[in-house]
Protein backbone atom coordinates (compact mmCIF):
# COMPACT_ATOMS: atom_id res chain seq x y z
CA UNK A 1 0.00 0.00 0.00
CA UNK A 2 1.00 3.60 -0.49
CA UNK A 3 2.53 5.25 2.57
CA UNK A 4 1.80 8.91 3.20
CA UNK A 5 4.33 10.87 5.27
CA UNK A 6 3.53 14.31 6.66
CA UNK A 7 5.83 16.91 8.15
CA UNK A 8 6.00 18.53 10.52
CA UNK A 9 3.84 16.59 12.97
CA UNK A 10 3.47 19.63 15.20
CA UNK A 11 3.15 23.18 13.93
CA UNK A 12 2.92 26.17 16.28
CA UNK A 13 2.00 29.31 14.37
CA UNK A 14 1.30 32.87 15.47
CA UNK A 15 -1.97 34.42 14.28
CA UNK A 16 -1.57 36.15 10.95
CA UNK A 17 1.54 34.18 10.06
CA UNK A 18 1.71 31.67 7.19
CA UNK A 19 1.86 27.91 7.67
CA UNK A 20 2.91 25.07 5.44
CA UNK A 21 2.48 21.29 5.73
CA UNK A 22 4.25 18.77 3.53
CA UNK A 23 2.87 15.41 2.45
CA UNK A 24 4.95 12.87 0.59
CA UNK A 25 3.74 9.59 -0.88
CA UNK A 26 5.72 6.41 -1.40
CA UNK A 27 4.39 6.14 -4.94
CA UNK A 28 3.14 8.61 -7.50
CA UNK A 29 -0.48 9.63 -6.97
CA UNK A 30 -0.82 10.84 -10.54
CA UNK A 31 -3.74 8.95 -12.08
CA UNK A 32 -4.15 8.15 -15.78
CA UNK A 33 -6.84 10.81 -15.79
CA UNK A 34 -4.14 13.41 -15.22
CA UNK A 35 -5.25 14.16 -11.68
CA UNK A 36 -3.42 13.56 -8.41
CA UNK A 37 -5.78 11.79 -6.01
CA UNK A 38 -4.60 13.65 -2.92
CA UNK A 39 -6.94 15.36 -0.49
CA UNK A 40 -6.42 17.47 2.62
CA UNK A 41 -8.72 17.26 5.65
CA UNK A 42 -8.91 19.21 8.88
CA UNK A 43 -10.18 17.71 12.11
CA UNK A 44 -10.98 20.45 14.56
CA UNK A 45 -11.03 19.55 18.26
CA UNK A 46 -14.04 17.39 19.11
CA UNK A 47 -15.30 17.33 15.54
CA UNK A 48 -15.42 14.97 12.58
CA UNK A 49 -12.94 15.59 9.77
CA UNK A 50 -13.84 18.13 7.11
CA UNK A 51 -12.67 18.38 3.52
CA UNK A 52 -10.36 21.27 2.64
CA UNK A 53 -8.70 20.39 -0.66
CA UNK A 54 -9.36 17.67 -3.25
CA UNK A 55 -7.28 16.49 -6.20
CA UNK A 56 -4.23 18.22 -4.80
CA UNK A 57 -5.19 21.83 -5.37
CA UNK A 58 -8.96 22.33 -5.50
CA UNK A 59 -10.59 24.09 -2.56
CA UNK A 60 -13.77 22.48 -1.35
CA UNK A 61 -16.96 24.48 -1.13
CA UNK A 62 -16.92 27.01 1.68
CA UNK A 63 -13.18 26.70 2.39
CA UNK A 64 -11.53 30.11 2.87
CA UNK A 65 -9.16 31.34 0.19
CA UNK A 66 -6.28 31.42 2.66
CA UNK A 67 -6.06 27.65 2.22
CA UNK A 68 -4.26 26.38 -0.87
CA UNK A 69 -2.88 23.07 -2.05
CA UNK A 70 -0.12 22.36 -4.50
CA UNK A 71 2.17 19.63 -5.73
CA UNK A 72 2.07 16.56 -7.92
CA UNK A 73 3.10 12.92 -8.10
CA UNK A 74 4.77 12.30 -4.73
CA UNK A 75 5.17 15.74 -3.16
CA UNK A 76 2.30 17.89 -1.95
CA UNK A 77 1.93 20.98 0.21
CA UNK A 78 -0.92 22.59 2.08
CA UNK A 79 -0.46 26.29 2.76
CA UNK A 80 -2.36 28.68 4.95
CA UNK A 81 -1.55 32.24 3.96
CA UNK A 82 -2.51 33.82 7.30
CA UNK A 83 -3.40 31.53 10.19
CA UNK A 84 -6.48 32.33 12.22
CA UNK A 85 -7.53 30.96 15.60
CA UNK A 86 -10.25 28.84 14.00
CA UNK A 87 -7.63 26.94 11.98
CA UNK A 88 -6.49 25.00 15.05
CA UNK A 89 -6.73 21.24 14.69
CA UNK A 90 -5.08 18.28 13.02
CA UNK A 91 -4.49 18.34 9.28
CA UNK A 92 -4.37 15.10 7.30
CA UNK A 93 -3.41 14.36 3.75
CA UNK A 94 -5.14 11.38 2.20
CA UNK A 95 -4.64 9.36 -0.93
CA UNK A 96 -7.92 7.96 -2.27
CA UNK A 97 -7.05 4.81 -4.13
CA UNK A 98 -9.31 4.34 -7.10
CA UNK A 99 -8.86 0.57 -7.23
CA UNK A 100 -6.60 0.04 -4.26
CA UNK A 101 -6.62 0.89 -0.55
CA UNK A 102 -6.65 4.51 0.50
CA UNK A 103 -4.29 5.91 3.14
CA UNK A 104 -3.98 8.89 5.45
CA UNK A 105 -0.86 10.68 6.57
CA UNK A 106 -0.06 10.68 10.28
CA UNK A 107 -1.57 14.12 10.82
CA UNK A 108 -0.10 17.52 11.61
CA UNK A 109 -1.31 19.31 14.72
CA UNK A 110 -1.54 23.06 14.21
CA UNK A 111 -1.53 25.16 17.35
CA UNK A 112 -1.67 28.88 17.88
CA UNK A 113 1.40 30.40 19.53
CA UNK B 1 -30.88 18.07 5.88
CA UNK B 2 -27.89 16.47 4.21
CA UNK B 3 -26.30 14.20 6.79
CA UNK B 4 -24.81 10.84 7.72
CA UNK B 5 -25.64 9.26 11.06
CA UNK B 6 -23.67 6.26 12.31
CA UNK B 7 -24.98 3.78 14.86
CA UNK B 8 -24.36 0.29 16.14
CA UNK B 9 -21.22 0.86 18.16
CA UNK B 10 -20.77 -0.60 21.59
CA UNK B 11 -18.77 -2.91 23.84
CA UNK B 12 -17.94 -6.33 22.45
CA UNK B 13 -15.61 -9.10 23.58
CA UNK B 14 -12.55 -10.10 21.56
CA UNK B 15 -13.57 -12.53 18.87
CA UNK B 16 -17.07 -11.11 18.77
CA UNK B 17 -18.93 -9.35 16.00
CA UNK B 18 -20.73 -6.10 15.47
CA UNK B 19 -22.61 -4.38 12.65
CA UNK B 20 -22.28 -0.65 12.19
CA UNK B 21 -24.84 1.34 10.22
CA UNK B 22 -24.62 4.70 8.52
CA UNK B 23 -27.96 6.25 7.63
CA UNK B 24 -27.93 8.85 4.88
CA UNK B 25 -30.47 11.57 4.29
CA UNK B 26 -30.92 14.69 2.19
CA UNK B 27 -29.23 13.41 -0.98
CA UNK B 28 -29.42 10.57 -3.52
CA UNK B 29 -27.58 7.85 -1.62
CA UNK B 30 -27.30 5.46 -4.56
CA UNK B 31 -25.21 7.92 -6.58
CA UNK B 32 -22.26 7.90 -4.20
CA UNK B 33 -19.38 5.70 -3.12
CA UNK B 34 -18.69 5.57 0.64
CA UNK B 35 -15.79 4.99 3.02
CA UNK B 36 -15.34 3.82 6.56
CA UNK B 37 -12.57 5.52 8.52
CA UNK B 38 -11.61 4.83 12.14
CA UNK B 39 -9.74 6.70 14.82
CA UNK B 40 -8.42 5.62 18.17
CA UNK B 41 -9.08 8.55 20.53
CA UNK B 42 -6.09 10.86 20.51
CA UNK B 43 -4.58 9.17 17.46
CA UNK B 44 -4.74 9.68 13.71
CA UNK B 45 -7.31 8.77 11.10
CA UNK B 46 -7.07 5.29 9.61
CA UNK B 47 -8.82 4.34 6.41
CA UNK B 48 -10.77 1.09 6.67
CA UNK B 49 -12.90 0.39 3.62
CA UNK B 50 -14.58 1.75 0.50
CA UNK B 51 -17.65 0.64 -1.46
CA UNK B 52 -18.90 1.62 -4.89
CA UNK B 53 -22.28 3.13 -5.56
CA UNK B 54 -23.87 -0.18 -6.54
CA UNK B 55 -21.95 -2.23 -4.00
CA UNK B 56 -20.12 -4.26 -6.61
CA UNK B 57 -16.64 -2.93 -5.76
CA UNK B 58 -15.19 -3.03 -2.26
CA UNK B 59 -11.69 -2.37 -0.91
CA UNK B 60 -10.21 -2.90 2.55
CA UNK B 61 -7.12 -2.07 4.50
CA UNK B 62 -4.97 -5.14 5.11
CA UNK B 63 -5.64 -5.32 8.85
CA UNK B 64 -9.39 -5.88 8.38
CA UNK B 65 -9.38 -7.84 5.12
CA UNK B 66 -11.28 -11.09 5.63
CA UNK B 67 -12.80 -9.94 8.95
CA UNK B 68 -14.80 -6.86 7.94
CA UNK B 69 -17.37 -6.60 5.16
CA UNK B 70 -18.77 -3.35 3.83
CA UNK B 71 -22.20 -3.42 2.24
CA UNK B 72 -25.08 -1.10 1.46
CA UNK B 73 -28.83 -1.08 0.99
CA UNK B 74 -29.62 1.58 -1.58
CA UNK B 75 -33.36 1.13 -1.05
CA UNK B 76 -32.92 2.05 2.61
CA UNK B 77 -30.17 4.67 2.12
CA UNK B 78 -27.95 2.83 4.56
CA UNK B 79 -24.30 1.79 4.60
CA UNK B 80 -23.08 -1.07 6.77
CA UNK B 81 -19.83 -2.37 8.19
CA UNK B 82 -20.01 -5.96 9.37
CA UNK B 83 -17.14 -6.63 11.76
CA UNK B 84 -16.19 -10.18 12.73
CA UNK B 85 -13.37 -11.69 14.78
CA UNK B 86 -12.92 -8.39 16.53
CA UNK B 87 -9.62 -7.62 18.20
CA UNK B 88 -8.54 -5.18 20.90
CA UNK B 89 -6.89 -3.07 18.21
CA UNK B 90 -10.23 -2.56 16.44
CA UNK B 91 -11.28 -0.31 19.32
CA UNK B 92 -11.92 3.11 17.78
CA UNK B 93 -14.44 5.69 16.69
CA UNK B 94 -15.76 4.66 13.29
CA UNK B 95 -16.79 7.33 10.77
CA UNK B 96 -18.62 6.90 7.50
CA UNK B 97 -17.83 9.41 4.77
CA UNK B 98 -19.36 10.17 1.41
CA UNK B 99 -17.08 9.91 -1.61
CA UNK B 100 -18.04 12.36 -4.31
CA UNK B 101 -16.58 10.23 -7.11
CA UNK B 102 -18.96 10.02 -10.05
CA UNK B 103 -18.44 6.94 -12.18
CA UNK B 104 -20.30 8.34 -15.16
CA UNK B 105 -17.94 11.26 -15.58
CA UNK B 106 -14.90 10.12 -13.62
CA UNK B 107 -15.05 13.33 -11.64
CA UNK B 108 -14.05 13.46 -8.01
CA UNK B 109 -14.56 16.11 -5.37
CA UNK B 110 -13.25 14.56 -2.16
CA UNK B 111 -14.86 12.98 0.89
CA UNK B 112 -17.26 15.84 1.31
CA UNK B 113 -19.63 14.63 4.01
CA UNK B 114 -18.79 12.86 7.26
CA UNK B 115 -20.87 11.41 10.04
CA UNK B 116 -20.34 12.13 13.73
CA UNK B 117 -18.87 8.68 14.41
CA UNK B 118 -19.83 5.68 16.52
CA UNK B 119 -17.58 4.16 19.18
CA UNK B 120 -16.54 0.52 19.14
CA UNK B 121 -14.82 -0.91 22.19
CA UNK B 122 -13.36 -4.41 22.05
CA UNK B 123 -12.53 -5.63 25.53
CA UNK B 124 -13.05 -8.59 27.80
Describe this structure in words.
The complex is a heterodimer of chains A (113) and B (124). Chain A is mainly β and 113 residues long. Chain A is built from no helices and eleven strands. In chain A, a hairpin with a 2-residue loop joins strand 7 and strand 8. Chain A is globular. The relative contact order of chain B is 0.31. Chain B is built from no helices and eleven strands. In chain B, the strands form two sheets. In chain B, strands 2, 4, 5, 6, 9, 10 and 11 form a seven-stranded mixed beta sheet that branches. With 124 residues, chain B is an all-beta fold. At the A-B interface, strand 4, strand 5, strand 9 and strand 10 of A face strand 5, strand 9 and strand 10 of B.
Total number of β-strand segments of chain B?
11
Helix fraction bin of chain A: under 10%
Query: What is the oligomer described by this structure?
Result: heterodimer
Number of helices of chain A: 0
- Percentage of helical residues of chain B? under 10%
Short description:
The complex is a heterodimer of chains A (113) and B (124). Chain A is an all-beta fold.
Overview features:
heterodimer; A: 113 residues; mainly beta; seven-stranded mixed sheet; four-stranded antiparallel sheet; 11 strands; 48% strand; globular; B: 124 residues; 0% helix
Amino acid sequence: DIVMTQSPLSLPVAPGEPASISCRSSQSLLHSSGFDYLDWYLQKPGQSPQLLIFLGSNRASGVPERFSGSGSATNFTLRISRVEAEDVGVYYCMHVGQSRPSTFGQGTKLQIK
Amino acid sequence: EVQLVESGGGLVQPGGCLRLSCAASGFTFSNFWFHWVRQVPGKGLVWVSRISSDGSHTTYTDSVEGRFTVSRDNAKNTLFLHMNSLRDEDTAVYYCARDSYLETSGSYYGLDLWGQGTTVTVSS
